[in-house]
Amino acid sequence: xxxxxxxxxxxxxxxxxxxxxxxxxxxxxxxxxxxxxxxxxxxxxxxxxxxxxxxxxxxxxxxxxxxxxxxxxxxxxxxxxxxxxxxxxxxxxxxxxxxxxxxxxxxxxxxxxxxxxxxxxxxxxxxxxxxxxxxxxxxxxxxxxxxxxxxxxxxxxxxxxxxxxxxxxxxxxxxxxxxxxxxxxxxxxxxxxxxxxxxxxxxxxxxxxx
Length: 210
Hints:
The chain is an alpha+beta fold. It has 8 helices and 4 strands; from the N terminus they run βαβββααααααα.
């Protein structure tokens, strides 16, 4: 049985959600964020960086949500929620699966960190460029979602599990993100949040941030 080290309102919810979608047995060691939103020091006992997610699967100890998602799909997915290498949309699936962490979250966390650290962030040189970068990402995702209901095509996949966090939990509880100009992203987020496995794993509380 997989054991998941889980931090509330974090990207570890991707793993919890995936396990629910696949109906796999698992156990959870859960931690709560501190008031400053950082992980508690006790989490350093589970991983040197003190972050989540981390899974234990027999002798395997694995961190990084993207790596964990790929690991679970490869060993226990049975082809579910993935795209086969020979499929026409395989490259598209891989792109969004890795774009979530490699590009989008990096950009959003950069902007959020500067807003937290700088008393008047918008007066700081270069901040306009940072904000413009976020808008560029959002416009690209919006355009993609006008062509299909999910990022890899017509079917829900693990790429959507990886991409959901910025538009669901992160937007609700960490960094408000205005999706008003992006109706396709808003509809996409609603589709993801309506999935029973998402609701069981994530249990969103309260309305989304503006």
